[in-house]
Amino acid sequence: MPDPEFILLGDAIWLDFVNTGQGRHPSDADRLPDQPSYHRWAKAEKLTSDADRVPFPDVLRIRARLTQLAEALAAGRQPQASAVEQINDLLGGVEGSYRMTRNSGRWHVQFTPARPIEALEAIADSAARTMADPGRHVRRCSAPDCSLFYIDDTPDQTRAWCCSEPCGRLARVERRRTAR
Q1: Mean pLDDT of the chain
Q2: Residue ranges of the alpha helices (H) in the chain?
Q3: pLDDT (tens digit, 9 = 90+) per residue, 23-41?
């Protein structure tokens, strides 16, 4: 099976974005080397691409701040103020309104954007929702040579690897080896 252009774990859009710079192995090449690759990534995530509007150095700067955020959260540290400020700046550009909705007999407040949100706004929204949910924990894969981030939202917070096939296979082999 050929290596896909992007590793999309599906846990959180913002971590998929961060993981474009991490790769499975620390020595992997950056998966967003240029503006067209950022556009392809947004499309792979089914987001409205803003690649034609946002200067590519800004995209890389935002990714670097979010990488710092992921590293801090994975280590159990408070995030840097600059990362939170970056998220707030991106979310501040989304126009829309709040609406009350009823789901399964419960009322919820829901923000409805006035236009489709663009990729960086969706990334910021994803990061904000992760930080606001105490049941979602950012982790770094513990498989040998893997540097990907993922969300551990298991009840006992014991997920140790990113769930991608190579890491999962290695973890299963290790479990069998140590069980003997």
Answers
A1: 86
A2: 13-22, 35-44, 56-74, 81-92, 119-132, 165-179
A3: 677 677 889 999 999 999 9
Q: Which pair of tokens denotes residue 29?
A: 């090449």
User: For residue 118, what pLDDT is reported?
Assistant: 95
**Distance (Å, rounded) from C-alpha 4 to C-alpha 2?**
6
Strand partners, 151: 138
Whether the Cβ atoms of residue 35 and residue 51 lie closer than 8 Å to each other: yes
Query: Measured between alpha carbons, how far is 82 from 6 in angstroms, rounded to an integer?
Result: 27
Spatial CA neighbour of 159 closest among 174, 171, 147, 177: 171
CA dist 23 and 3 (Å) reads 12
| Residue 67 · residue 18 · CB < 8 Å | yes
Q: Where are the domains of the chain?
A: 13-179
pLDDT, tens digit, for every residue of 143-167? 877 888 999 888 888 777 787 566 7
The CATH architecture one would assign to domain 13-179 is Orthogonal Bundle (1.10)
Residue type, 164: S
Tokens 């774990």 found at:
9
